[in-house]
Design a protein that fits this description.
It is built from 1 helix and 11 strands; from the N terminus they run βββββββββαββ. By secondary structure, the chain is mainly β. It has a single domain (about 10-15, about 25-35, about 55-200), classed as Sortase, Chain: A. The strands form 2 sheets. Strands 2-3-4-5-10-11-9-8 form an 8-stranded mixed beta barrel. A two-stranded antiparallel sheet has the order 6-7. β2 and β3 (about 70-75) form a beta hairpin. The protein is globular, with a radius of gyration of 15 Å. The N and C termini lie far apart (about 30 Å). The relative contact order is 0.28.
């Protein structure tokens, strides 16, 4: 699944049509057009203060509303600056250049909507609603629970890099996957689905 930087013309709160099975044979990078949505080498830690947790890497993510549980691996950057993607439908990946879940700033997890005919860990992200929760088990034994604020869909060529990776004044979480129509010519989805969430307990 190519995790292209999702671009959104409007907030998408309704599930997409699932009449035909989703397809995602090629990982979608979090970069739409070359250079347009490449990621910073490292995400700066916001200077503002708010309730937060100390640094600890994520080891498992749970999304109760979707009955989804996945282990979490580290993701770095490709040579062109695009975010790496998991090598299969599972597991989910965490961008190690940013905050760990629960730290001040935006922690980013990426996963596939599907992969070689198998539904990916983030297949149902488009169906999530404000108020749903995402639970992250961390390496130090603590648990960070996030409340979903909104779900958006963006064209990959218009990925909101600043909204996803830019500084924020609270501990936030972004879940990124592919969405929209599947382009047979490129073998990729045209959009990205992005979930924005805020730490509520930890």
């Amino acid at each position: 699944m190519a995790l292209a930087a999702a671009s959104v013309g409007a907030v998408v709160l309704l599930p997409q049509d699932t009449g035909s099975p989703a397809r995602l044979d090629t990982p979608v990078a979090v970069a739409a057009t070359p250079g347009a949505s490449t990621l910073p080498a490292e995400v700066a830690t916001p200077a503002a203060t708010s309730w937060q947790l100390s640094a600890s890497e994520p080891v498992r993510v749970r999304i109760p509303a979707l009955d989804v549980t996945s282990t979490v691996i580290r993701l770095g950057l490709e040579r062109d600056g695009a975010l790496e993607v998991p090598a299969g439908a599972y597991p989910v990946g965490w961008y190690e250049g940013g905050p760990t879940p629960g730290q001040l700033g935006p922690s980013v997890l990426a996963g596939h909507v599907d992969w070689e005919g198998e539904r990916g860990a983030f297949y149902g992200l488009r169906e999530l609603r404000a108020g749903d929760t995402v639970v992250i088990d961390r390496a130090d034994g603590t648990v960070a629970t996030f409340r979903i604020d909104r779900v958006e869909r963006h064209a990959k060529e218009d990925f909101p890099t600043e909204e996803v990776y830019g500084d924020i004044e609270h501990a936030g979480l972004r879940l990124v996957t592919c969405g929209g129509a599947f382009d047979e010519g490129t073998g990729d989805y045209q959009d990205n689905v992005i979930v924005f969430a805020t730490l509520t307990t930890g």
